[in-house]
User: Fold NB-ARC domain-containing protein from Hevea brasiliensis.
Amino acid sequence: MAEGVLFDIAGDIIQKLGSRAFRDIGLWWGLKDELKKLKATVSSIQAVLVDAEKKQALDEQVKDWLGKLQEVVYDADDLLDDFATEALRRQLMTGNRMAKEALLTCGARGSRILVTTRSEMVAAITRGKKPHYSLKGLDLDKSWSLFKKVVFEGKEPESPKVKEIGEQIIKKCVGVPLAIKTIAGLLYFRDPEREWLPFLENNLSKIAQNENVILNRLKLSYDHLSSLLKHCFAYCALFPKDYVIDVKKLIHLWVAQGFIEPSNSSLYVEDIGLQYFTELWWRSFFQEVERDELGNAAFCKMHDLMHDLTTFVAGNGISIINSKEKIVDESVRYVSFALWLYSSQQIRVGLSNAKKLRTFLLPRQGFSRDVIAHVLSIPQVIVPNFRELRVYDIGQTTIEKVPSSVNRFKHLRYLDVSSNNEIRTLPNSITDLQNLQVLNVSSCHRLKELPKDIKKLINLRHLYCRGCWSLTHMPRGLGQLASLRTLTLFVVAEDNSVAKNVGGLNELNSLNNLRGGLAIRYLGYVKNGIINPNLKGKSLLQSLTLYSDLQYGNANVDNEEMAFQSLQPHPNLKESVLMHDLATLASGIRIGSRFRG
Assistant:
């Protein structure tokens, strides 16, 4: 993993051991002295970590020592998580106080293949007798123009000396636009008169002039990141090259792994995560950022050079499996499969040595005839073997059900089972996952209901269920999830007066921290059209979508019209849409009329 990760994990352990909650745990279980000794030991370890991590590149013995120490630190972190989870479980059993508090294979005739590469060796092998064009970097004038656009907003510096130093700096970037932008982004925060020359002499001059010259230039910007940002950036090595990254999901993954440091301010961890992403984007670690209709950063990519850098700095703790033959080392904690899975055996073989995974990602999955013909039994492979998972992503894998044994993942923070059309129900044992922060069941089109004891998920912050068109109701107690920040769909039950596990629209009343988009379906089922979901109190909500589903069940047109009229959203709402035809929406065509509350 990235430099500084052990230092930060050790710091987090020390902070936990010093908290009142863990002092209480020590008293409850008679472990006060043992936890005190553990804190002293971890503090001693942390004191030498920074220096050791700097020396590991030059000293194999130090590197080996750090590798062994990494296992100890991770195990200690897992142990404390076990204590905290057990304490949480006991609190739930005695009144649930916490919940109350808070390349092309085909082409037309005349098609051509264009091969691009940064390697002269690859170019020599592939070109044969075909023309070969070597692209040059930007010349000095264009390099300077790009540099000053970032640092001086396009203006010339007043001091000739500053310009002279700046030109010397960009010469080191050998005309590579990405290198120029990243170095410029770094220097933007430094005093040109006092800090640029030392940077040129003490940083840039130390880089060896070899085949990795550009990578080393880029690493300068990485070296000046905070340790937390280094973790976040290195974690992106799990995504394949040219992969379109979902920004919101990326932030959820960072939070799940503990890479986001909570602030003393009123900001939520997701807000802090967005600040992390924005800073990395501003420094050109991300590019091609796309925004959604409401102006939020939605998707991004990484430049190939940046992907090379993240792979370089990630170290042995992160592995991306991109071939059937690859078997990861036992020290790996974060893994993703960048190849299409046609058999669960591929997972069993690839991860045969890794027993302490914290992340399992499948970024390349999707539906194909071959995969659909062979239903994957991924949970049967993962659940018995990897109990330390924080992130479990099995979206778009054609699984038919989530096993009840999923509750063995007591450390789990992020669970994604989205776009699995054969899933009809979720096991109620999911609600034993008291640490769960994100549950994504989006586009599970045949899913009929959510777990009835969902109120036990007291740390759940995001529930994604958009596209679950078979849902008949929301579970009673949903409104008790004080930590909930995202709820993408609420389904009004046809008759919520008879079933004790069915929640009414009033479940929304207390969920005033909801943000992003909320959709409500079956308003015609509301008796007499009288509703009070307290939309006025939801100031962070950006979008509200109402589905008119009069063609289904016993929805009443008068009730629906009255319900529409009684809605009074907060003035901060940016978008409100009334969807008239759900079938059209499901086929991929968005239609609707906008209304004002």
Summary: The chain has four domains: 5-92, 140-206, 211-307, 308-594.
